[in-house]
Amino acid sequence: MPLFLVTSLIDEGMYENDFQVVEAASMLAVAQHMLEHPDQWENYLRSAYPRNWQDPTSSVGSLWDFVNQPDITAERLLELINMTSVDGDSASQLRIFAVKAQQLSEVDTDPLKS
């Protein structure tokens, strides 16, 4: 089963409890788990605020507010997760990334070589 990295990055930096590596069928399955078991993800969801950058005056609350709505879907939750970002008020950026293991000899952090 594929691995996914779930991160909750805040402006103060990254700490050991700010990421989880999970096995799941897809990113959508991770989002579905967040909907079905929000208490397990509460710390990440409460501090992540999706922002609509096309309308900076809109405020929709935290992801925690969304997962407690009966009509939210995993697809919509993924969209909202990708709308979160770090700001100076301790709002966190929540992300889900597919993880691919590699040999140490293959590591290259230069994004221009991809």
Describe, in plain words, how this protein is organized in 3D.
With 114 residues, the chain is of the alpha+beta class. The chain has one domain. It has helices spanning 27-36, 38-46, 63-67, 74-81; strands at 3-9, 19-23, 93-99. A three-stranded antiparallel sheet has the order 2-1-3, with no helix packed on it. Helix 1 (27-36) packs across helix 2 and helix 1 (27-36) crosses helix 4.
Brief account:
The protein contains 4 helices and 3 strands, in the order ββααααβ. The chain has 114 residues and is α+β, with helices and mostly antiparallel strands. The longest helix has 10 residues.
Low-confidence stretches: none
Distance between the termini: 25 Å
Q: Strand share of the residues?
A: 15-25%
How many strands appear in the DSSP assignment? Answer: 3
Helix/strand/pairing class, anyone?
alpha+beta
The radius of gyration is: 15 Å
Number of domains: 1
Shape: globular
Characterize the biggest β-sheet. 3 strands, antiparallel
The number of distinct helices, counting runs of at least 4 residues, comes to 4
Largest sheet, order of strands side by side? Answer: 2-1-3
Output mean pLDDT.
88
The arrangement of helices and strands along the chain is: EEHHHHE
